[in-house]
Design goal:
Keywords: Membrane, Transmembrane, Transmembrane helix. This is Type 4 fimbrial biogenesis protein PilX N-terminal domain-containing protein. It comes from Candidatus Roizmanbacteria bacterium RIFCSPLOWO2_01_FULL_45_11. This protein is α+β, with helices and mostly antiparallel strands. The protein folds into 2 domains: 136 residues, no CATH class; 105 residues, Hypothetical Protein Tm1070, Chain: A (Sandwich). Helices cover 25% and strands 33% of the residues. The protein is built from 2 helices and 12 strands, in the order H-H-E-E-E-E-E-E-E-E-E-E-E-E. The strands form 3 sheets. It has a 4-stranded antiparallel β-sheet with strand order 1-2-11-12. Strands 3-10-5-8 form a 4-stranded antiparallel β-sheet, with no helix packed on it. It is elongated.
Length: 256
């Protein structure tokens, strides 16, 4: 017989078994390290997304605060907490009067409803506000539509109401100097009588209209560069419809 070494001695060699054990340890370490790195990466991403979400919410809240400040003050400006805590957003807001043209479209008015054109620059203070002087031309479709024009104006220390019915046509011009308004009008209210009015346009009013409302644009931002923008259009409140069906006076009504 030859002098060869039995194969079983290599298969059960202690060096072979220790190498296999080391390989298993290395593989297990790689798997654990991979899982750990993945968990850390996910945690980092989650933290970053959470921070961005928080800052986006802060920027949006600041933009909302800018809108509120613009509507309250009716002038452009900035909003921020004073002193400003770290991580708190600020806002820059711009207020623009509506409309800023010499004519604008009122759209459509259904029969029985009404729309108001304000003819003073401060709706909240009609007695001290500037009353605009000039013509107001109203155009509408169809030319068969009848319209009631209700004019609010100041006479002495009282607010008066004048009503005019336009039987037909598609255009009429009012002048602030007409009696009894005498350049003291407050608002013109247009009310269809028998059918809907469409394509109502107000124009030719001394170059530009009194402000009918405001456009407020607010940009909230954080120090990290996250920005959120909000735009709001706030038109002046309309005259309550109940005034179309009431008689007002500072004393008792007496039937004679």
């Amino acid at each position: 017989m030859g002098g060869g070494v039995p194969l079983t001695r290599f298969m059960h060699s202690p060096y072979t078994e220790s190498g296999q054990a080391a390989l298993i340890v290395v593989l297990a370490s790689v798997v654990i390290l991979t899982l750990g790195i993945g968990a850390v990466a996910r945690s980092t991403v989650d933290i970053r997304l959470s921070a961005q979400t928080h800052e986006a919410a802060a920027a949006f809240a600041a933009a909302e605060a800018g809108i509120e400040s613009g509507l309250l003050n009716k002038t452009s400006g900035t909003w921020q907490l004073t002193p400003t805590p770290p991580g708190i957003a600020s806002a820059i807001y711009t207020v623009t009067g509506l409309p800023d043209l010499s004519s604008y479209d009122l759209g459509s008015v259904r029969r029985g409803d009404a729309k108001t054109v304000w003819l003073i620059n401060d709706v909240a203070s009609p007695f001290t506000s500037t009353h605009y002087v000039g013509d107001v031309t109203v155009e509408w479709d169809p030319d068969t539509a009848e319209m009631e024009a209700i004019t609010y104006y100041i006479s002495g220390s009282e607010v008066m109401v004048s009503r005019t019915v336009i039987d037909s046509g598609d255009q009429i011009t009012f002048n602030s100097g007409d009696s009894p308004i005498d350049d003291q009008w407050i608002a013109l209210r247009l009310k269809p009588i028998m059918e809907d009015m469409t394509n109502i346009t107000i124009s030719d009013y001394n170059g530009s209209f009194p402000v009918q409302g405001y456009r407020v644009e607010s940009n909230g931002y954080t120090s990290s560069g996250i920005n959120r923008r909000i735009v709001v259009h706030k038109w002046h409140d309309d005259v309550p419809g109940i005034f179309d069906f009431t008689i007002m006076g500072n004393s008792r009504l007496i039937k004679s």
